[in-house]
Amino acid sequence: MTTAHGRATVGTEDLSRLTAIHTLGPTGTNLEKAAHHWFAERDRPGAVVLHAEVEHGLDAMRFDGSEAILACAVYPRLHDLVFSNLHRLVMVDSFLLDTHHMVLAGRTADTPLSAIVTHPAPSCLVSARGPISYASSNSQAAALCAAGRYDACVTTGPAARAAGLTVVEDFGPVPMVFTLHLGIPYGEAPRTAPPHRSRAAADRDEA
User: Fold this and answer.
1) CA–CA dist 113, 9 (Å, integer)
2) What's the pLDDT at 125?
3) Residue 8 and residue 186: Cα distance in Å, rounded?
4) CA distance 140 to 24
5) With bands split at pLDDT 50, 70 and 90, how would you rate the model's confidence at 197?
6) Edge to edge, what strands does the sheet with 166-172 contain?
7) What is the pLDDT of residues 23-54, one digit of tens each?
8) What gap in Å lies between CA 129 and CA 114, rounded to an integer?
9) For the chain, what is the radius of gyration of the CA atoms?
10) Average pLDDT of the chain, as a whole number
């Protein structure tokens, strides 16, 4: 199967072999939710494997069409994931799904906001509130806050509850695009697309 520009793609039927999705942990991340959603929507079992960084999945996954990495449109290093792995990953699916409720949470309701930890992606939600430090995920931000390393954190509702934190402000769920990247054998990566030619140019050639 090829696109209109002649680029090879993976057909939907090939995804029937997908049995494991690697994505960002620890448990409570939006990416974990989306990975489980992908399998549930297809009414099929599948393993969701969580890593400290999305890219860590590359060291653990199989590249035989049976495993994939799940990222999202606001993942800060999505471009690196795609373009640094053209020889072994192919983007095969994307879908829209609400995130968990994104919240600002602390150890108490009246927690100070002098030191906030957040994943880089939602950091603008609190950029005007004080100094910001970065964590590898929303769930990791909650764990660091609960451990007393920071006063407050931006995290997901489930991660805040799991860490015993109190919600200071609820930003609500965010409609998000998630991207699925299938691991393929070396040498079977899609070939480079030819230069784009407009429909008008093609029509002139055919005339």
Assistant:
1) 48
2) 95
3) 15
4) 10
5) very low
6) 132-134, 116-118, 152-156, 102-106, 166-172
7) 999 999 999 999 999 999 999 999 999 999 99
8) 8
9) 20
10) 88
128-149: pLDDT as tens digits: 888 899 999 999 999 999 999 9
Instruction: In whole angstroms, give the CA distance from residue 59 to residue 67.
Output: 12
What span, in angstroms and rounded, lies between the C-alpha atoms of 71 and 79?
11
Cβ-proximal residues to 174 (8 Å cutoff; 6+ apart), any chain: 98, 99, 102
**DSSP readout, 144-195?**
HHHTTSSSEEEEEHHHHHHTT-EEEEEEE--EEEEEEEEE--TT-SPPPPPP
Alpha carbons 139 and 157: distance in angstroms, whole number = 10
Residues 6+ apart with CB under 8 A from 129: 104, 113, 116
Half-sphere exposure (Cβ direction) of 194: Cα atoms closer than 13 Å: 7
